[in-house]
Design brief:
- The structure holds two protein chains of two kinds.
- By secondary structure, chain A is an all-alpha fold.
- By secondary structure, chain B is an all-alpha fold.
- The longest helix of chain B has 29 residues.
- Chain B is elongated.
- Classes of the chains: A mainly alpha, B mainly alpha.
- Chains A and B meet through α5, α7, α8, α14 and α15 of A and α1 of B.
- Chain B: Keywords: Membrane, Transmembrane, Transmembrane helix.
- Chain A: It is found in: Cell membrane.
- Chain A: InterPro entries: UPF0324_pro (IPR018383).
- Chain A: This is Sulfate exporter family transporter.
- Chain A: Keywords: Cell membrane, Membrane, Transmembrane, Transmembrane helix.
């Protein structure tokens, strides 16, 4: 009898989760469509008014994030947010958007920037991870939470926190908490960094390297890069993708450290080279493959035909980025931050300041005078 | 810090929710790569045109 109940209940549960997932995706799509509509219409509505300049300057990441936050507030008030949350797939949308972005970046730019990006990523990850780990220890944070926060702030936000959580066997509350901190700190950075880059009169390559090296989550890097311009967006994406590629190295190191030193399980299997590949973010391959495909294709067709096709890819990319930015707003959780108190927030805030300054220093040292070819 | 403070709780077994999210993230990487590359190929082959993208 029990078995009968069990077998009949599981499909219903899966069906129900599937329905909520689909409804969550529908919410993202509706808000994405509204973002697109506002982005197209607001400048027309504001024409010949005192808001004309502002309306022309506001770009789709701003509408998308604000609508996502507004949707988040409404869904939280109506009690639907948690049920729909599976459909808010920021990571999937941003990764697909980045693969599509690869088609508009000349392979030569990726190759030229690769050396500097790798040097910047290795130095930043080592220094910021080390600082966050040390400060978390000084303030008495749990080792697993330290590992999650250090990975999130030093590498690439939510993706790195997920990889680190798997490596150190963290709990879902710790992961939700780290992800909330990432988004809470990334949201203001999206608007502040492009503005500061402008105030500091940074050239496009330095601004892009600063944004890519500093902002934690990949979606927020792309949003800030978009606000800063096509040149900074290209460099920011290359720098961020390079950091993403190093997730595996850090995750394997953490897995080994926790197995042998923290949890002290000597019989734990030693992570081998296969682990590096298993934890490597595969969309990085898609990003480079897209650049290779588009670069080869543009060499075969006329300039007009090539530009026309890449423009369609760019339109699709904007759609996926809009969906990612809407999802960032929808995913933000204030509750998890309230629960954990001031110490992890203080660690994350201090690490973010160190990250901002180090990333600026390295961006100036490594990317000053770097030429970015015109966008295609 | 409250009783639910994630920093204060002892280490435990791997959380199945975290494992699920990690596995899903890895699958999501492949899915994003496949969707992105397929869309690029469809556009460059002329199957997806300007008129099909709103």
């Amino acid at each position: 009898m029990t078995e009968t109940v069990r077998t009949s209940r599981f499909p219903a549960e899966i069906r129900s989760r599937g329905t909520w997932f689909a409804l969550g995706v529908v919410v993202v799509l509706l808000l994405g469509w509204l973002t697109h509509y506002l982005n197209e219409s607001v400048p027309d509505w504001a024409q010949d008014t005192s808001f004309d300049d502002i309306a022309s300057a506001v770009e789709y990441p701003v509408y998308a994030i604000l609508l996502g936050l507004a949707g988040n507030a409404v869904l939280t008030l109506t009690g639907l947010r948690d049920r729909l949350a599976d459909g808010f797939r920021t990571e999937f949308f941003i990764k697909t958007g980045l693969v599509l972005l690869g088609a508009s970046i000349d392979l030569k730019l990726i190759v030229d920037a690769a050396g500097r990006s790798i040097v910047q990523a290795v130095l930043l990850i080592s220094l910021v991870f080390g600082f966050t780990w040390w400060l978390g220890g000084r303030l008495g944070l749990d080792d697993k939470l330290r590992a999650l926060l250090a990975s999130a702030v030093a590498i690439c936000g939510v993706s790195a926190a997920i990889a680190a959580a798997g490596a150190v066997q963290a709990r879902k509350e710790q992961l939700a908490y780290a992800a909330s901190l990432v988004i809470a700190f990334a949201l203001p950075s999206i608007f502040l960094l492009p503005w500061l880059a402008d105030v500091l009169n940074l050239d496009d390559a330095v601004a892009g390297a600063w944004i890519g090296g500093n902002i934690d989550t990949t979606a927020a890097v792309t949003a800030a890069g978009t606000l800063a311009g096509e040149g900074p967006l290209a460099i920011a994406s290359i720098v961020k993708v390079t950091q993403n590629a190093l997730i595996g190295v850090v995750a394997v190191g953490l897995a080994a450290y926790f197995a042998y030193r923290v949890d002290r399980t000597p019989d734990a299997p030693r992570p081998g080279p296969g682990e590096l590949w298993r934890r490597f973010p595969k969309f990085v391959i898609g990003f480079i493959a897209a650049s290779v495909i588009a670069t080869v294709y543009l060499g075969q067709v006329s300039s007009g035909e090539g530009k026309e096709h890449i423009a369609v890819v760019n339109d699709l990319r904007i759609w996926f980025l809009i969906l990612a930015f809407v999802s960032i707003g929808l995913e933000f959780r204030v509750g998890a931050l309230r629960e954990a108190g001031w110490r992890p927030v203080a660690v994350f805030a201090a690490a973010t300041v160190v990250n901002v300054l180090l990333a600026l220093l390295l961006a100036v040292l490594l990317f000053s005078g770097f030429e970015i070819p015109a966008a295609r | 810090m409250s009783g639910t403070d994630p920093a204060a709780e002892p280490a435990g077994r791997p959380d199945p929710d975290v494992e699920t999210r990690r596995r899903w993230a890895l699958n999501e990487d492949w899915l994003a790569t496949a969707v992105g590359l397929i869309l690029i190929v469809l556009v460059l082959a002329g199957v997806v045109t300007d008129g099909l993208v709103p």
